[in-house]
Structure formats: structure tokens, C-alpha cells
Amino acid sequence: MIAPFFVVFGVFGLYPLLHTAWVSLHDWQLIDGDQGFTGLANYAELLSDGHFWNALGNTVSLFLLSTIPQLFAALGLATLLDRGLRGRAFWRAGVLLPNVISVAAVALVFAQLFGRDFGVVNALLGVVGVDPVDWRAETWASHLAISSMVVWRWTGYNALIYLAAMQSVPKDMYESAMLDGASRLRVFWSITVPSIRPTILFTVIVSTIGGMQLFVEPQLFDPGGTATGTGGDDRQFQTLVMYLYEKGFRLFDAGYSSAIAWVLFLVILVVAVVNFAVARRIASKG
Amino acid sequence: MTATRHTRSGPIAYALLVVILVASVFPLYYSFLIASKDNSALGDAVPSLVPGGNLFDNLTRVFDTVDFWLAMQNSMVVAGTVAISNVVLGTLAGFAFARLRFRGGNSLFLVVVGTSMVPTQLGVIPLYMLMSDLDWYGTLQAVIVPALIGAFSVFWMRQACEESVPHELVEAARVDGCSVLRTFWHVAFPAVRPQAAVMGMFTFMTAWNDFFWPLIVLDPNDSPTVQVALSTLASGYYTDYSLMLSGASLAVLPVVGIFILLARQIVGGIMQGAVKG
Which run of H or of E encompasses A27? Predict the structure, then answer.
């Protein structure tokens, strides 16, 4: 009865991942096939590849810009939803709505919102007297715009996960703290956050893995440049997965692309472990 | 969940929530807005929030540019099959883990949970080669088969069986001479139907929204899924926002529809699936 799972996972999950390692040790072309064993040559080339380092930098920058605000906003939103609210189901559904929209659709809408000439964001900035920003051309601006998609899409989802955890915190803990005259902020940092620590760790890890694999948001952010997949003229918002896609499926260099995949896997592992350690320290304070 | 929490909310809390809700809905409304206008109206300095009259023209253009009906049908077939298969296979495995005793059951379950940490995105190159070898490139089964069952479904349905399928019932059925499969079908499956429905919806939405793998393994110009067809609308020589966002509005309709119908269950599902602190 559990065999179907292991068959599907083995053939379409585990086998490809391991096979990626094998392919990465070869000069392997997607169309022409194996051109011979080259050992670590692909990895060596990767280390001196400016485009790779650029993509890595962009990925880390986008990951930080999207994950940190998203998780803090989610904590705040969860606290708000944890109060006695009328129409509880309605608010909860409302904050989750962005999460059910496909990334492709989200990316296209945000591409319009952040347009240079006719975008709403620039129109709003104009109202308060800020000059229009060219959201695609500048590195920082493009990273901010792309991160805003991620934050928009995932904040509500994480808030609901925090909310679930908050609701299992014993109420008398809050009551005695209130009796002792603790402020709301103090109660939040000293009781709520430590109590839901495992959940915070869980969301940090999950959003790390998601954040390091950003693809659709930046890929579709520049609709005209979608076909090239370079993330802007100067690759200013090309992520690692976009680079993997460009090398593997635009230039058909399967060996090199597989090397990127394995390095990305290791980077995710390292970032997840570092995150885990940092989040555990932060969450245990207070 | 208790009805009264430790604090009641004042008007500020509601005001904040309204702002957040507007921010959640605005991009959706905005894409519909652009979809209803013609491109020249996009040049207005301050965009108008009133829909224009070009919705049908734009939708027609979507169907002229790509075979959007076919893409919708394809997505329906993919997401439908994936959802049904995940419900059936996930419940089978979940039932086995929750209610049958077999050697190594616990460690096998740990393996299942562990597999959800393997980023499948990173195995796309060999997966693509595998699909080419099978001659599946450009076919729907290339998208369907790898998604037939996932760790999340097994995990979710195991939890459902733990909660809703009483040990006594399973044993009684076995004593009466029911086979394992008959017991599953007549005793366990009806008991977990609500949780299975929520799970089916999750997997349907995930499959409907998937982009990366279909983009790789389907021919964008031939018969892709809706999400890939969207990217085709976007990749024209000049950026036609009314066209793009008309397509996007159409593509989100089914999931938003499902979500509105089942919001309560889906929200409950996400909260239940969360790791409790």
C-alpha cells in the first residue's frame, strides 16, 4: 500500500537528484549526450564564472529581502488575528488569498505594477513627489520589486501557521503576565515568541529553501526578456535557478547546469543550517 | 479553539486588517482592471480604477494568440488526475502507516517525511533526459506521473487516519474476514472523506499553479498548461499588458473559485497542518 509512493519518489525524485551528480562530472550536452568524463572541470569553471557569482549574490539578496520582512510581518499579522475578532473565518481567508494565485499570474501583475512609465507604484511615488524609478534596470530596485511579490504571496500563509501555534499557547500564561502589568509588546516577546519557537524554526527553514530556489518571479518580472532568461540586460536579477535554466535549457549544457544544481543544493543546506542556528538563538532570548 | 481570546480588538486592529485585506485583493482587481482596458488607456498619468469596456476584445485576443482553451483543458486534466491520484494513493499509504502494523513502519514513515526535503527542482536535467528516453516530452503524462503521489499527501492522510479511523472498527472488520483493501475502502476511506477532500483541493491548486517543470517538459507552442501559456503571452516582442493580464485573470478563475467555495476548510487545513508550538 505504500509501494506507489516509494516507486514514484525513487524514479522521479531520488534517481534524478543522484543522476545530476553523475552528469555534473561530464561534458554532457542535452541534445548530443555524453561527451566524456571530465571530473570536477565543471565545478572548477563554475568558481571562476562571474555570472555564477552574480547569480549567487542576487539569490542571497532576494532571499534576505523577501524572507525577513515576510516572517516579521507574518508574526505581526498572526498576533492581530489571534485577538477576539468578529468574522474570524473571513479575515483568515482574506490573508490567504494571495497564496492560492499562481506565481506566473502574480509575476505578470507585479511586472505591470512596477512598470517604469505606466506602473501604479511609480504613479503613487509621483503623488508624494518621488521621481519615477526604473524598476527593471537598477539592481536594488529590481530586487525590491521582486521581493515584494514573494512577501505579498507568502505573508498570509505564514501568519496562519503562526496563528495555529499561538492558539495552543496556554491562556493563563497571558493572564498572569497581564496581571503583573506587562506591556503588550513585552508579552509578545517574552511569552508568545518563545512559545511558538518550533514553528518559527519550521517557517524559517521552509522559506529558506523556497527563497533560494526563486525562479518564476524574476523570470517573468521582465516580460519582454522572458525568452532569454538572463534576468535583465546586465543579469541584475538573475537567480541561481534562472542561471541553471539558462545553461541547461537555453544553451543545452547539461553537465554545467547539473554542477550549478549541486552547488545550489549545498548552498541551500548551508544557509538552512546557519538560519536554523541564528533563529534558534534569537528565539531563545527574551 | 475558544471563542474568547485574551484580548478584544479595537477599531485600530480592524482598520489594519482592512488595509491588509485591500493589499491582498488589489493586485487581483488590478489585473482584471487592465484586462478590461485597451492598451492606450494604460498611458494615463493616474490610472483609473474604473473598469473599461474592452474585456471581451482582450479575451478574444488571448484566444487568438494562444490556444487557451486547450491549455485550460490540459491544466484541468493534469490537476484533476494529480488530485485524484494523491487522494487515493495518499490515503492508502496513510492508512497503512496509521493502522497496519508492519516491520519498519516507523522508519519508513520517517523516510517519507525526509523525502519532502529533497528539492526536486534540482534534478530537472536527468528528469528531462528520462522523459526524453521515455518519449514523453511534450505529453501531459510527463507532468502528471512525477506528481501522482507526494510526501505531503501521505503525511496528511496518515494524520487523518490517526484522528478519524477507530482501531476497533478496523479490528472488527478484520475479524469479520474483510481483506485489508476491503477494510480500507469500506471502513477507513469513508471516515476520512472530509480531510481527503481538503487534501485533494490542495493538490489540485498546486498542480494547477505549477510552472517550472511544465515549462521545461512541455512545448510552449504546442499544447502547454495554462501557466506556460501565460508566459507565452508575456514573451511577445513588445509587452502587451492588457493581453497578458486578460490571460492571467482567466487562469486564476478556477483556483479562486475553488478557494472561495472552500475557504473555511482550506484555511482550517493549513492551520491544522502547521507544526504546533
Answer: strand A26-29
- Check A105 against B108: CB less than 8 A apart: no
For residue B30, give the nearest of A113, A224, A268 by CB distance. Answer: A113
- CATH, domain range B54-275: 1.10.3720.10
Inspect the interface and report whether the beta carbons of A8 and B148 lie closer than 8 Å: yes
**Local confidence band at A259 (pLDDT 50, 70, 90 cut-offs):** very high
Whole-angstrom distance between the N-terminal and C-terminal Cα of chain A?
A: 47
CA atoms of B249 and B242, how far apart (whole Å): 10
Nearest C-alpha in B relative to A224:
B235
Residue-wise pLDDT tens digits, B7-42: 566 788 899 999 999 999 999 888 888 888 877 666
Does A77 contact chain B (CB < 8 Å)? yes
Total-model pTM: 0.88
CB contact under 8 A, A167 and B1: yes
Scanning A220-279 for CB atoms below 8 A from B yields 220, 223-224, 226-227, 241, 244-245, 248-249, 254, 257-258, 261-262, 264-265, 268
pLDDT, tens only, B114-168: 777 777 778 889 899 999 989 999 999 999 999 998 888 898 899 889 888 888 8
What is the value of ipTM here, to two decimals? Answer: 0.86
Contact A94 B120 (CB under 8 A): no
Cα distance between residue B95 and residue B90, in whole Å: 8
User: CB–CB of A165 and B276 under 8 A?
Assistant: yes
A90-121 pLDDT per residue, tens:
999 999 999 999 998 999 899 888 988 878 88
Minimum CA–CA partner of B201 in chain A: A100
Per-residue pLDDT tens digits for B53-100: 788 888 888 888 888 999 999 999 999 999 999 999 999 999 988 888
